[in-house]
Amino acid sequence: MKILVTGGAGFIGSYFIKYWMDKYPEDNITNLDKLTYAGNLENLLEVENNPNYKFVKGDICDKDLVMDITKGIDLIVHFAAESHVDNSIEGPEIFVKTNVMGTQNLLEAAVQNGNIRFHHVSTDEVFGELPIDKPELKFTEETPYAPKSPYSASKAASDHLVRAYHHTFKLPITISNTSNNYGPNQHPEKLMPLAITRAMLDQEIPVYGDGKQIRDWVHVQDHAHGIELAITKGEIGHTYLFGGDGERENIWIVKKILEYLDKPESLIVHVGDRKGHDVRYAIDNSKSEKELGYKPEKSVEDWLKETVQWYMDNKKWWEPLKPVADKQADRYLSTRLDK
């Protein structure tokens, strides 16, 4: 099978490529990535010399490139997206361009080149937020869309486009929405690697507000497995949600990281909260479990411990990226609440 993976140099896309090539070594994968700051070809060193792997630097907003590169492809797995919520608040335009128009380019190319099987990777943030005081409520495949940030609004629009191309042009699609991912090779600007790398160096760790925002943390390995199941077992036209059975407060995550590293909680600095910060996300995996056999492989505690160890063992990978993360952290710390 010939597969096009978009955004395959990013955190989740690169993990998926390695996961898929290990499990299906006979398949051919073309990785299309623009190589923004979040894309890193060092994530793919173990497959770069594989004859069944090819990298193409390019933008999904380039219509001619997208039309050409999808010729002869059997499956498109679409990860490419602008994905940092804070960046979407500072500059929404690129999120609309990449996440909406870029997705439409891929969909159109998929239709024009023979109705290529299309899997779209999305986020649970399209559903908005859940109340803190009703823990029994979780997102399902039937939850109405209610995005709250420019990022989630752009992803919601892309989800709707994918479904529209299925209903209008009979494009064979599946969609997956997932919660907050973590694991190896995640850019150190994100919460977990930011906390890990700064704690390792005894630097202050910014935490939004009181830190009691709840996320359903899913390890990238479980997410990659879920996408595989959606592609190989999912019903065309359907959406599947993949969570980690890992609802935890952000402050719990940071404190657990400090515990694993034997660092003091005094490194935590509470900072001004994000504009329009969603208070809680949680995913109900019931449909994915029943129809696909999906189940997280390990607990959040076990996966988190492995993640901390990976960053401890791979300083050479994240050190070149740290200046970008530190700039972000300094911006957060400028709004510290202990002034």
Automatic annotation (TrEMBL):
GO terms for biological process: nucleotide-sugar metabolic process. PROSITE patterns: ADH_SHORT (PS00061). This is dTDP-glucose 4,6-dehydratase. Its EC number is 4.2.1.46. Belongs to the NAD(P)-dependent epimerase/dehydratase family. dTDP-glucose dehydratase subfamily. The keyword Transmembrane helix does not apply. The keyword Cell membrane does not apply. The gene is rfbB. Keywords: Lyase, NAD. One of its GO terms (molecular function) is dTDP-glucose 4,6-dehydratase activity. It catalyses: dTDP-alpha-D-glucose = dTDP-4-dehydro-6-deoxy-alpha-D-glucose + H2O. InterPro entries: dTDP_Gluc_deHydtase, NAD(P)-bd_dom, NAD(P)-bd_dom_sf, Sc_DH/Rdtase_CS. Residues 4-307 form the NAD(P)-binding domain. Its cofactor is NAD(+).
